[in-house]
Design brief:
Residues 1-24, 63-92 are annotated as: Disordered. The protein has 288 residues and is an alpha/beta fold. The protein is built from eight helices and eight strands.
Length: 288
């Protein structure tokens, strides 16, 4: 033991010295007490820092570039352009894998549709001519999309035009051909509509936010069905979209509902296939 420390111990053991509160021994005892407290605190801080450093080194790094601490949930990859409005609100729709093959067809991505949107239609600008080589009288039509829906007008209009001018659709065999316009007289309008506005447009028919209808010259396509499909078609959203367009335009062309001709047979396109197949097989085309 160093001399200075031995001397201090002897003085601490001296009853007379201890009995003097203001004496040198009392001051030494107070200093030694403070020194021991400081040493204990410093040791604890050093031990904590060393543990944290080891955890940061051993833990895997998150995809965001920062360290991932053990016990914490792994950080999700940041979306391009920042968090979406749905993510910020905490209401994040389940992701849907694009390009899935169903019935041999590459599927579009399903779109979650809100109950209501802007409440007013926006006419899709531009025109689309019938395909070259098609025959028959020209039928003019317009496409409109309710403001605020998460489906673009250009995307919807392109699908409507493709479907109507398919050889299996209403123009089959040169019966007619379809031209999309943005002005002038038209035979019908194809209108993509939120469930809430569909109920209003289709009244007094009861669509319950689920079905589509014809209302005047409008072929009202319920955006929930177009975006998410129907149980009768399962995961084949691409084929269901063809059905709902052909069915509602069929009403605009003067066709009424039909019945299933028999179990296992192909359903006519004017069967209400969104509600049920009635024992038939699904079919989206007037002339399959």
């Amino acid at each position: 033991m160093p001399d200075a420390d031995r001397s201090d111990v002897q003085k601490l053991n001296d009853p007379a010295a201890v009995s003097r509160p203001g004496g040198r021994v009392a001051r030494l005892r107070r200093r030694r007490g403070r020194r021991m407290v400081l040493l204990a605190v410093a040791g604890a801080v050093a031990l904590t820092a060393a543990s944290a450093g080891a955890a940061l080194i051993l833990a895997p790094r998150g995809k965001g570039g920062g360290p991932h601490r053990p016990g914490a949930p792994a950080p999700a990859p940041a979306a391009a352009g920042g968090a979406s409005r749905a993510a910020r609100s905490g209401k994040v729709a389940a992701p849907v894998a694009p390009g899935r093959l169903v019935n041999g067809r590459r599927q579009p991505v399903a779109v979650r549709i809100p109950e209501s949107a802007g409440g007013r239609y926006v006419l899709v600008p531009g025109t689309a001519a019938p395909p070259r080589g098609s025959r028959g009288p020209v039928v003019r039509y317009m496409v409109e999309v309710e403001r605020g829906l998460p489906i673009t007008g250009a995307e919807f209009a392109a699908e409507v035009h493709r479907v109507l001018n398919d050889r299996r659709s209403w123009g089959h065999g040169g019966a007619m051909r379809f031209q999309r316009v943005a002005r002038g007289p038209v035979r019908f309008r194809v209108s993509l509509t939120s469930p809430a506005l569909t109920d209003r447009e289709c009244a007094p028919l009861v669509t319950g936010g689920e079905l589509s209808c014809r209302s005047g010259i409008r072929s009202v396509i319920n955006a929930r069905r177009y975006g998410e499909g129907a149980a009768t078609y399962g995961a084949d959203l691409a084929t269901y979209r063809e059905y709902v367009i052909n069915h509602e335009v069929g009403h605009a062309l003067g066709h009424g509902h039909e019945q299933c001709p028999g179990p296992g047979r192909r359903a006519p396109v004017m069967v209400q296939q969104t509600k049920s197949l009635y024992g038939c097989r699904p079919n989206p085309w007037p002339f399959p």
